[in-house]
Amino acid sequence: MNRLILRLAINAVALYLAVGTGWIQGIQAQPQTWWAYLVMALIFTVVNALVKPLLKLLTCPLILLTLGLFTLIINAALFWLTGLVGTWIGSGYGYRIESFWAGLLGALLVSIVNGALTLVFREELKPRRKS
Questions:
Q1: Do 18 and 106 contact (CB within 8 A), yes or no?
Q2: Is residue 131 included in any domain, yes or no?
Q3: Domain total of the chain
Q4: Is residue 130 assigned to a domain?
Q5: In the predicted model, is pLDDT for residue 91 greater than 70?
Q6: What does residue 85 show for φ and ψ, rounded to 5 degrees?
């Protein structure tokens, strides 16, 4: 349970840096509250857990053909889908991506921040063995 909470916090920080800081032009966030970023992180986690494996399976030939670079397109699509689902849920939980490049940069930033924070908290995120 603690790993899930830590994973949600990492995703919330990554989404805040990509969406809330305004570093990437072309991504417009709904009202920005800490609660909204936690809900977006929950949506992002669920979308990544359910949709990403299916997309990777369906696009496996493209991933192999591009030597893995097509996963950036998959990440951008999931980043866009997270914002879309957030706006469907209600006001204040989503963001709008105005261009493909903004979505790609946002997804890249989320991936980099997520990877860096996962390295920082790798011990806490390791599954514990029952003895």
A1: yes
A2: no
A3: 1
A4: no
A5: no
A6: -65, -40
